[in-house]
Amino acid sequence: MKFDTLTLKPANSDDFACSHVVRLSGRQWLVVIVVLLAVVGLGPTIWSYFEGFTADSDYRLPYELSSDYWLWRRHCGQACEQGKILVVGDSVIWGHYVPPNESLAHYLNEFSGSEQFANLGLDGTHPAALAGLLKYYGAGLSGRTVVLHFNPLWLSSTKHDLQTDKEFRFNHAELVSQFAVKIPCYKASTAQRLRIVAARSFPFANWVAHLRKVYYQGKDLQTWTLERPYDCPVMPVTRGLPQPGGVPEPSGGTWVDKGAKKQSLSWVTLDSSLQWRFFRQAVEQLRRQDNKVFVLVGPFNEHMLNDADAATYSQIKTQAAAWFQQNAVPYFVPEPLPAAHYVDASHPVGEGYALLAKKLLEQPTFRALLAKQ
Predict the structure, then answer these.
(1) pLDDT digits (tens, 9 = 90+) for 135-146
(2) CATH code assigned to 50-371
């Protein structure tokens, strides 16, 4: 046998003929492509049946899965199939300092005598994120009744309103406008923005993100297996979805218990507010999809405002109410709850949610909306 003098291989040997090489024929490559397309296209749907998901009347997304938008969409879809009224908003609706059976949705169910309200609150969803959540993950939400919460806290400073030029990290950056509307404090690179746009546009990417968050501590499979080389990567999925969380952190008592100190806020005007602009977009998005929208404003803890801030906030409420009236959006701006019913500027305790639910159910416009449900 003749050998190549440079490589010491047989003269006519195939460079690819080694034991660890797998070569596929054209037909085999076609099979691989078909299988991959099936996984990408059908994987999320099949997984929904495999994983299983049944929400009881007090269900809310677990606090640790606040960024699991794939799961939020499943919860939303199931509530719509059951004909429920969706109560949508930030941590005030979610119930940041109360267990699931003391949230606003719970008391609405209790006092109305039927389990017709579903808690679709998501912790930290300021209006810019809320608009994106409804646009990208509520696209199938149509023909339903939605109670949409507007928390004035997001207008209490230029930072909360996302108007500061200095970069800072805020909740749910994956949901905000990446190109259409400029957010001054959001400094993500073009590549990062493109990745976000691509990820939220494809169910497969959202499904993979769901698997990471729920079963692999937020890590990709490669990182997870490197950290646990002797663990089977299939085993974590057997535990199923985590149960809804209770109180995510101690409240430290009510606002009165904490000393009931007044604060100085730097309200932005409604006309210049980014958050108000995005909230209006959220309302319009829902109405374009043939949903009936009812807006709940607050209740903000006005007991903590000094005279000047209280006057500014009163003007904000008046202007917001004028917009709702001009656009035929039913709404309710409740009087502030008793001071002892607040934990902070915007979160009630259980008694506060109960009182708010009673006031809401007494509103003629709200009762009229329920009658049409």
Answers:
(1) 999 978 999 999
(2) 3.40.50.1110
